[in-house]
Design goal:
941 residues, mainly alpha, 64% helix
């Protein structure tokens, strides 16, 4: 399979054409083992014979490295009398007391034969794997290369090699004046995706693309990994996806380390010890594990560094350049020895003052905790830092420690349990509630009890138990309170609980004094929490703009102190959600980018999962469905236990896959939902994606009545239901399906219900648009649906616009306006094509076909695989900005995307245009005919 490197192939073919015309030369092709040197050279030189060149090919191997001229003979004379003559001379050299003369004679014989061939026609000699070649063959090749590059012979020499340490005799050949070197770099991200696509015959999904990075861009290693995962892949609808998350995949095959036999034993041992330290490590960490000064590691690391097995990483660290190599080396260490090495490393790290998270990583790999490890968790000042920075690791270690400590050691257990509760609270795990409740019951000190009460209230709110959180808050506020700031924070919690319990007016009345008190106190954390409480009360009163003003003030307070970082993250997520409701993507993108950076910097796992979920929803609405799938994949991998998370992850993933007509994959996502997925009110608020996905799959299977039934829970009445923003659009889908099923009463009920939701959420444009759609569908009124289309265009959410255009096409067809219907259908399909909504295109075609409307061939043609026409609308926008010289951050700002999503688009653009640089994209864009799609200044699609 030939993936990428087209420009280099073209250069090599041009070089061969010059050789066929009589020009000599030397070309060194470098690349690591598995880079595809042999296949690249064979493919690029396949036309040499047809150009009139005599071609001779040979490959050196490790076994022949000690046999003089073995590699040269295999290339020039694999058999026949000339080989026999040269071998006779070599035997004479072996038996002679002074072998130099016979060896030189053999070399002269081979040189003369090559010159005779060159006299007849141009000669192309290929020596593969020259790093294994014997010194005599390399000397002969050097002699021939000097004559070739000097123009004395019509001779082309191609040598493939990799930087095998300990072979200095190869360097003089590679340094021949006039020779050229061509390096096969690791595959880029886009080229890796392309190779996966070629090998599997399907587009790789987000999980598979992420897992494929383990190969580090090495084609052979990637093939080995795909073979290892063959039973874990699902290929459907032109898409291939892993059934397991990356962390659940089996270890890499033993073949991953098969190319390391050349390593010295000290170097291999150093790599095994490095594998204990994770994907990246510092030299100091490795020195601590090895029990040796760092300066003594230089010799051991020289081999893997020169062979590029290790590479520089951020923060002055080293990393395994092929991520799959680390677990393969790790598996070579016996399990019992691994545990002991991890335990020793943990103690060495702690005593050396390394970050607590690095110590914890070693303890996690060390099995049962040693007495020293239990003391470190209970007594060390590092434990609180560990909980703040790596709560998941802290929780697992604290659970192990509590299980090992004697129940009679009550003081030690109390310390461990409180720390476990802190970690569980950061991880949003339900057990934090009972741990904190038990600690509160045993606590007598008023100050400590107030602090535990605040943690307990926070834990209850995270789990959605607002009634109990209000009870605990009021009990705590009724007691003696030593801290003014903590009391104010609990008063803010009371506002939050009241608002969530549908007592928003009461909450709003209490919020004002809390904000005023926080302003007087001038404490950043109290100020942020007070404004958060006020914003929440206003949100539940349906006053979105006023709520967002308090959110912005709260963020301003939180930015004044790192202590308020967690509240800042919460407020940024609320800011993003609020402005998303107002169709204001610029603010949404900025808030989510700031939140993601802060969550990563503070290692706040609980807040990061919220940010990733919001980002996924944002990308889904923008039509960047690959970005949405990547976002929920990241959120799903984070070690938190929020009850709503599975609903978001599986619901959004199922909905995207359903729209893309990958039915089996979508069903699998819905089947993965826990039985109690909708047990909490918070989880029920995120139910719309699950309902829509279930309905989509039923409709796709030809069961419209079942599709309608899947959505009917959205008709439930109540204050809580009316305030759910996404409900209005679900109700508009109920109207469409109910009318198709002939259930006009249900359709009318959904219209009325949507009107109530639109009144409850009157500030926001989305419910009003949904109401227009409902009424337009119910009356088959093109005028109302045209108004909905205008609002949809203003909102900027592609799927909403596409579905509204589809409905408009149907209504126009019902009224006999077939030309107008065809126009609306064509526009709807163009919108659907952007995110790849294949099912929506099929449904729209079917609905209109029954009314006598078909699209023209122009809108029906399939997008080609390469070239500018292969770019999706989103990729085309990015490509045009790249051609203007914009950076990824600038493009992200213009298009309201994350920089990571822009980078993904750029990678796809480079692959589809078959170029390797942004400058080449600009050059191709400038060369396009004026007015062509993809030409700077040309009208957009």
């Amino acid at each position: 399979m030939r993936v990428g490197r087209e420009q280099q192939r073209d250069e090599l073919r041009e070089w061969v054409r010059g050789g066929a015309e009589g020009r000599g030369g030397l070309l060194i092709v470098e690349g690591e083992p598995g880079a595809g040197r042999t296949g690249f050279v064979r493919g690029a030189l396949s036309g040499a014979a047809a150009l009139g060149c005599r071609v001779r090919y040979g490959a050196a191997d490790a076994l022949g490295a000690e046999l003089p001229l073995r590699a040269a003979l295999d290339c020039l004379h694999p058999r026949g009398p000339d080989r026999a003559a040269a071998v006779a001379l070599l035997r004479e050299a072996e038996e002679a007391a002074r072998p130099g003369g016979a060896l030189l004679a053999a070399m002269d014989l081979l040189t003369a034969r090559a010159e005779e061939w060159c006299a007849r026609r141009p000669l192309l000699l290929v020596l593969d794997d020259a790093h294994w070649a014997d010194p005599a063959s390399l000397l002969l090749w050097q002699r021939l290369a000097g004559r070739a590059v000097a123009g004395r012979l019509p001779l082309l020499l191609v040598v493939t090699r990799w930087a095998l340490p300990g072979r200095p005799e190869l360097e003089p050949l590679c340094a021949t004046p006039g020779g050229r070197t061509l390096r096969l770099e690791p595959l880029s991200t886009a080229e890796t995706d392309e190779l996966v696509r070629d090998l599997l015959g399907a587009e790789p999904g987000p999980r598979l693309r992420e897992a494929a990075r383990q190969a580090g861009g090495n084609p052979r290693l990637l093939r080995d990994l795909l073979a290892q995962w063959s039973g874990l892949l699902r290929v459907e609808g032109g898409r291939a996806e892993l059934l397991l998350a990356e962390g659940e995949l089996p270890p890499p095959p033993a073949s991953v380390t098969r190319g390391l036999a050349w390593l010295s034993e000290p170097a291999r041992t150093a790599l095994r010890h490095a594998a204990l330290l994770g994907p990246a490590f510092t030299v100091r960490e490795l020195a601590l594990v090895r029990g040796r000064p760092a300066r003594e590691l230089l010799t051991e690391l020289a081999e893997p560094l020169s062979a590029r097995l290790l590479a520089d990483a951020a923060g002055g660290r080293l990393r395994f350049r092929h991520p799959a190599l680390r677990p393969a080396l790790y598996a070579e260490i016996p399990e019992a020895l691994r545990a002991a090495l991890h335990q020793d490393a943990a103690q060495a790290f702690a005593e050396a003052g390394l970050p607590a998270a690095r110590t914890a990583e070693q303890l996690l790999g060390g099995g049962r905790l040693t007495p020293w490890a239990v003391r470190w968790l209970a007594d060390s000042d590092s434990a609180p830092a560990l909980i703040a920075g790596a709560p998941d690791a802290a929780a697992e270690l604290l659970e192990r420690a509590i299980a090992q400590v004697d129940p009679r050691e009550r003081e030690t257990r109390d310390v461990l349990e409180e720390r476990l509760a802190d970690a569980a609270l950061l991880l949003r795990r339900p057990e934090s509630v009972e741990l904190l409740a038990a600690l509160r019951a045993r606590t007598t000190d008023p100050g400590r009890r107030a602090a535990v009460d605040f943690k307990l209230v926070s834990a209850l709110m995270i789990q959605g138990d607002m009634a109990r959180s209000l009870t605990v808050t009021e009990r705590a506020l009724a007691a003696e309170f030593p801290s003014v700031a903590l009391r104010l924070r609990l008063e803010a919690c009371r506002v939050l609980a009241l608002a969530d319990l549908h007592r928003a007016a009461e909450a709003h009345a209490l919020a004002g004094p809390v904000v005023a008190a926080a302003r007087r106190l001038r404490d950043p954390l109290c100020g942020a929490e007070a404004h958060h409480a006020a914003s929440y009360a206003l949100f539940h009163l349906g006053r979105g703009r006023a709520s967002l003003r308090h959110v912005a003030e709260g963020i301003g307070w939180a930015r004044r102190s790192p202590e308020a970082d967690d509240m800042r993250l919460l407020l940024l997520a609320n800011q993003a959600e609020g402005h998303m409701r107002f169709d204001e993507p610029v603010v949404v993108a900025a808030a989510l980018e700031e939140a993601r950076e802060l969550a990563a910097a503070t290692r706040s796992t609980g807040r990061l999962v919220v940010t990733e979920a919001r980002l996924a929803e944002f990308h889904y609405r923008l039509g960047d469905w690959d970005g949405a799938l990547a976002g929920v994949a990241r959120a799903g991998r984070l070690p938190v236990s929020d009850g709503w998370l599975p609903v978001v992850v599986h619901g959004l993933r199922a909905l995207v896959l359903g729209h893309r007509d990958e039915r089996e994959a979508a069903r699998a996502e819905l089947a993965d939902l826990p039985a109690d997925a909708f047990a909490t009110p918070t989880a029920r608020r995120y139910a719309s994606h699950v309902l829509l996905a279930r309905a989509l799959l039923a409709e796709r299977d030809g069961r419209p009545a079942d599709a309608l039934g899947a959505l009917l829970p959205a008709l439930a009445e109540g204050v809580e239901e009316e305030a759910v923003y996404e409900r209005a659009w679900v109700l508009s889908e109920i109207v469409r399906l109910a009318l198709e099923c002939g259930e006009s009463a249900t359709a009318r009920a959904a219209v009325e219900c949507c009107a109530r939701s639109a009144r409850a959420l009157a500030e926001y444009p989305g419910p009003a648009l949904a109401l227009l759609r409902c009424r337009g569908l119910f009356a088959q009124d093109p005028e109302l649906l045209e108004q909905a289309v205008v609002r949809g265009e203003r909102g900027g959410w592609p799927l909403v616009l596409g579905q509204t255009l589809e409905d408009l096409a149907v209504a126009r067809a019902w009224h006999g306006d077939l030309a107008g219907a065809r126009s609306a259908l064509t526009r709807a399909v163009a919108v659907y094509e952007g995110p790849g909504a294949r099912w929506d295109i099929a449904r729209a075609d079917a609905r209109l076909r029954s009314l006598g409307v078909r699209r023209g061939s122009r809108s029906a043609r399939r997008r080609p695989a390469s070239g500018w026409e292969a770019l999706t609308p989103a990729e085309l926008k990015v490509a045009l900005l790249v051609a203007q010289g914009r950076s990824n951050p600038e493009i992200a700002s213009v298009l309201f995307l994350s920089p990571r999503t822009v980078q993904t688009h750029v990678s796809h653009i480079l692959a589809k245009l078959q170029v390797r640089s942004r400058a080449a994209v600009a050059a191709q864009a400038a060369a396009r005919p004026p007015g062509a799609a993809g030409t700077p200044g040309a009208p957009g699609p």
